[in-house]
Hints:
single chain, 641 residues, alpha+beta, 22 strands, globular
Amino acid sequence: xxxxxxxxxxxxxxxxxxxxxxxxxxxxxxxxxxxxxxxxxxxxxxxxxxxxxxxxxxxxxxxxxxxxxxxxxxxxxxxxxxxxxxxxxxxxxxxxxxxxxxxxxxxxxxxxxxxxxxxxxxxxxxxxxxxxxxxxxxxxxxxxxxxxxxxxxxxxxxxxxxxxxxxxxxxxxxxxxxxxxxxxxxxxxxxxxxxxxxxxxxxxxxxxxxxxxxxxxxxxxxxxxxxxxxxxxxxxxxxxxxxxxxxxxxxxxxxxxxxxxxxxxxxxxxxxxxxxxxxxxxxxxxxxxxxxxxxxxxxxxxxxxxxxxxxxxxxxxxxxxxxxxxxxxxxxxxxxxxxxxxxxxxxxxxxxxxxxxxxxxxxxxxxxxxxxxxxxxxxxxxxxxxxxxxxxxxxxxxxxxxxxxxxxxxxxxxxxxxxxxxxxxxxxxxxxxxxxxxxxxxxxxxxxxxxxxxxxxxxxxxxxxxxxxxxxxxxxxxxxxxxxxxxxxxxxxxxxxxxxxxxxxxxxxxxxxxxxxxxxxxxxxxxxxxxxxxxxxxxxxxxxxxxxxxxxxxxxxxxxxxxxxxxxxxxxxxxxxxxxxxxxxxxxxxxxxxxxxxxxxxxxxxxxxxxxxxxxxxxxxxxxxxxxxxxxxxxxxxxxx
Length: 641
Ligand SMILES: [Zn+2]
């Protein structure tokens, strides 16, 4: 995040973001040289999220966003999502083809076709788990059954795809092909999620078939040649194979997963060196999620260090104020050069990257229960996810552009199907998955979202009533049949600069934990017990690490965007393009003069909550959370003198 102005820590310095002991010395030999061997040794997580089936989001902006997404998913017809798979298997299909990246017409082949169908399966499973939506489950189940028929018909060691195996011959021969394993990963992950979250056993069979094909294909390659092949994007092939190994107990899948270890990427990370410049961002985050999973299955610290260092480096040195990372899909500069990197393109902060960084974040959090992981998670969720879905339509963004004068652009109904459309339908199907966590002593409240937790095993229910972030407080009410002893840990966010209070049944709790930690309430909870927490928000400024005058304005966890009007914007410029074409409609973005270091000296509260306006500037601007800006040009970064 941009407020980090400390110099780059030396390699091997203790990581402030994890309480886990790091290995003491920098390895002299690249840690991933030689052939990997897998030995099962599971690492128990310190904390676990409650299953999505035990948590329900009750209302507010998160519920609204989930409903818009559910509407979009319901409008997509099953036969259209299966169409390309049927054609590829030589089966009849008369469905209307999808467009964009799913296009399959002679001469204009979408080389990633089928990827969105995989995401859709994941999203269906997540939607069912998070809401109990039977229609979503029925559609997902039916799609699994139809895809299983395609897999049978193809009859090639379990291969299942919407494109032919010849594309893998091209991959093998290092001839041009986009990213066939990337697409295969999405379908495998969709099958895994349908098994794990929707209990579909046929999905596990289909997945084992696909894993068999991938295992056979990769076994035939030499180690050296496989490393060449891994230069082509392959999504999270390692992760899904490790997940399958974890779910079935069959180490064969973990050994297959190990073949997707890109050593040139992992070696510097495990040695705590940032060599990320020049890499394509969303190619690599999923590989790190796979590394984290590999550590959990084997206790191999090399993989731990890859994930731990990567997370620390990306969130502290390569993330914009919204929590988003990437520019033009890449890391284009050295760490902490975000102001100069931002000038390189308006295709800032790809949404898939935010999705995958949040996925990695919750995984690492489970190892340590360090609340600072949730400071990043909350920042990214509020600023880079909540406002990237278009109200009503449920269309989502590719890039959340942070170039001054940008506007938000969204996919259309059926002619885009970008990678981020895929991670988008997943994201907004699982907004309940990280609010509450548990360990042997009790539970953790990590996010302030109106919701209900049903801890059935303990006979303990918790209802969170809040209008956060519109109102900077939350109330938690306990329902129990008989008293339950447990610790309730409330996250006290790092953005809480002063104030903050907690009451139990109207009585103040004397000790308040410091920002960036937990307040632990250990007691025997009775029916109707009520915890009220106030988390007052304040205006604050964060500067770019390489340009202190380039500043953004925050209110509590919310990044504020300046409203620069909608002049010249048309519907065609908003729905369809993957990024705003800013150069076509130039706009002069005002700069500001700060009367003092205190932002209250030049920014005043507006009439409504979360509305602000600059004061005493040559051109004054209204400010509101970036998650509330639609159909307008905006700026998040300003030149402030
Ligand atoms: Zn994407």
